[in-house]
Amino acid sequence: MSTPTPPATTALVVIDVQNDYCHPDGVFAAAGLAVDDLDGLVERVNALVAAARTGGRPVVWVRMEWADDAGVGLLAERSPFLRERGLRRGTWGAEPVAGLDRRPGDHEVVKPRFSAFHRTSLDDLLARLGVGTLVVAGVRTDFCVESTVRDAFFRDLRVVVARDAVAGYVEELHTASLRLMGTVFADVVGGEQAAGLLAGRPAAAPPGEDAAYERSRTGAAGRSDAR
Predict the structure, then answer these.
(1) Which of 16, 20, 142, 187 is flagged as catalytic?
(2) Catalytic, out of 20, 22, 111, 210
(3) Catalytic residue at 16?
(4) Spatial distance between the Cα atoms of 153 and 197, rounded to a whole number of angstroms
(5) For residues 180 and 225, what is the distance between their CA atoms, to the nearest angstrom?
(6) How far apart (Å, rounded) are the C-alpha atoms in residues 193 and 43?
(7) Pick from 61, 64, 176, 201: CA 20 to 30 A from residue 144's CA?
(8) End-to-end CA distance of the chain
(9) Catalytic residue among 20, 22, 142, 144
């Protein structure tokens, strides 16, 4: 007799909340790319982490780092300030931002490119944990978050993006990325609703309704039939 497949669970995936990406002393801020209200972002991420712990959901911390200059690849041409420093293994810049509620028993994934699935163990980890839905938070909305969300969708994983727990450097690009992800790749919801999903509390409205509202608010309602 075959063993029944356990029901898919929901996991929280927090992407690249690292010093070089987010801290005022990091290399991205030095290049003019700053995260507004870092303390608030950490607080909102931690609220999702607390909800995941309440619901017994896995918490996966993703970070980007390179062992040496060669590991940066083509990005060194597109972002020259990363050619010789930034997100290097073993440095302060590659470390998670202080104040995040990271604990033993959480999971960690290290990636060399924007997507958390590219050349990482994330696929295997999610399969082992029986995960079918991801709640995603972190930075940068229009680069690493969106790349990960797209790759999750291509793997037939359901994705919920907590719109107030993701951040970018350029408001226009951040907003456009949320709008794009909400058309087909993910449900874009408020932090309270995302926390409710993680904690196992009934949501005030299904994620799709909240995403549809977001699309209509941003003028993308005409694309809702793509879902």
Answers:
(1) 16
(2) 111
(3) yes
(4) 18
(5) 14
(6) 16
(7) 201
(8) 38
(9) 144
